[in-house]
Hints:
By secondary structure, the protein is of the alpha+beta class.
Amino acid sequence: MNDVSDVRAMLVESATRLFADQVNAKMLDAAKQDGWSAALWKIAEDAQLPLVSIAEEAGGAGGSLSDLAAVVRIAGRYAAPIPLAETAIAGWMLASSGLKIPTGPLTLAPVHGEKITARKNGARWNLSGEMKRVPWARITGHIVVLAAGPDGDIVACVESSQCKITAGQNLAFEPRDDVVLDNVAVAASLAAPAADGVNHATLRERGALMRSLAMAGALERALELAVRYATERSQFGRKIGQFQAIQQELARCAGEVAAAVAAALSAAGAMERGQNAMFAVAAAKIRTAQAAHEGALIAHQVHGAIGVTDEYALHHSTLRLWAWREEFGNEAAWAMELGRAMCAAGADRLWPALTSD
């Protein structure tokens, strides 16, 4: 095992232990009401997990995108109620543009077609616009915005307290809030021209990648719970896992999980290398979303009625699967985008795109 693999193995072990020790039913139930777990955030932030892929000189842990991918997958597996992926992307936006990353949880605005405008006003920028379904907006200290300035896009770090926030939530009770910026003033030190590679398309790709990785983790957890239940639950004098029909469904679920994990990790690697990132991310979001549909269905079928109760752990994973598949573009949207890109590239580029690393 090389040095990079050794370090990542230690990171995975540490993150798994952290979330396994801290996340429990009481925390997840409380997060439904509170929107998140401040205690878990503090522990994860102290461990530098949200900024694991940010360079040390910018305030991060100096890891890679693949390191972040491993952490997000684990967080998804434990349904960690914190804005880990959002903080990672927002931190990347700030660090790439030469801005300081503030402490505390961060978020960014997903791309829904809204436009934020920025106007220079002396030593400040004034931002105006509306953003729909911003993840975790009401519990974060800052929202990192990509705004349209007079000479190109700028990255701005906006204090959440300066915004009008209307609370909302997704199916998993995670905050998804509408945010209005009404001539909000941002100091020049908190805004800068967007760096090369920081644009609406790459933000959407990174968001879709993070959701794909989180879904892969949640699918692993759903399969784990289904297998455990099948080995414990008896019917007609036998463990239900001994029935061929149940074994077949669990095997099918395992196949969906394996495909989702492979697609998500492959996309992370492609983005890290800068090779066919859009193609890989589109494929990952499509495949993990399809696996989320099939995997959640099978897991609930194996569990029967108990699987839909609030008291049982399965719903924490499956509700997130159903919610996350719609965020940063669902499978239909990404399939259309992938098809348009392939048509534009021409028939001669199809096979190389399918077979390239």
